[in-house]
Amino acid sequence: MALPGPVLGKLVLVPGNARTQSATPTMTDTTAAFPPPALAALAAQAAAILTERKQTVGVAETAAGGLVSAALLSVPGASAYYAGGLTLYTLASRLAFGGWTEADRAGYRGPTPEIVAGLAAHARTALQSTYAIGESGTAGPTGGITNRKPGYVVVAVVTPEGEVTRAVDTGVADRQTNMVRFAEEALKLLVEVLTAADKGKL
C-alpha cells in the first residue's frame, strides 16, 4: 500500500485534536525579523534627514549583498530619497556597472578605501544622487589576510564636498552575521555624515 505524500502549506488534523503545520513559512514568519533592528533604526534615521532636506542617496555594495538598499527601501516613502543601488559582488559586475576597467580588475587585491570610495563616486554620478554609500569586504567564512580576511570591510560615503571612508574588522567569520554587520557599518557612516552636515561639520 502506497503511503500518501506530504501535504505542504496546509493544516493536517491528527488524533487528539492536535494540529501540525507544514514547514511552508507564512507571511509573518518571513518578515518578522526584516530588516534586522539595527539596520531598521539606522535606515529610519537616514530617511528622516534625507526626506526633510529633499536629498537622495545611491548605493554601491558588494559583500552586504543588497542589505543596505533593502534597509533603506524598507522605510515607507523611500522613493523620495532612494536614488537606486547596485550589488557589485563580482569583478565582472564592477566592469559592467561599477565604472571599472580591465586594469582595475587585473590589479585588484581586495577592498581599499580608494576602491570603495570609487565605487560610491561612480554610483553617485550615474544616479545623480546627493550622496552615495560604498561597501566592500569579505563576509567569510573563508578568506585571505589583511584586507581580505573574514570580517574585514571598508565603507564609504561620497558627498558633494568629498568622501569619508572607514575600515572595520568585525572579528567574526560567520557569513550572515558579517553581511548584516557590513550593512550596519555602511548605514552608520551615512547617518554620521548626514548628522555632521546638519551641524556644519562637513
From TrEMBL:
Protein name, entry field: CinA C-terminal domain-containing protein
Top-rank taxon: Eukaryota
InterPro entries: CinA-like_C, CinA_C
Domain CinA C-terminal: 41-193
Pfam families according to UniProt: CinA
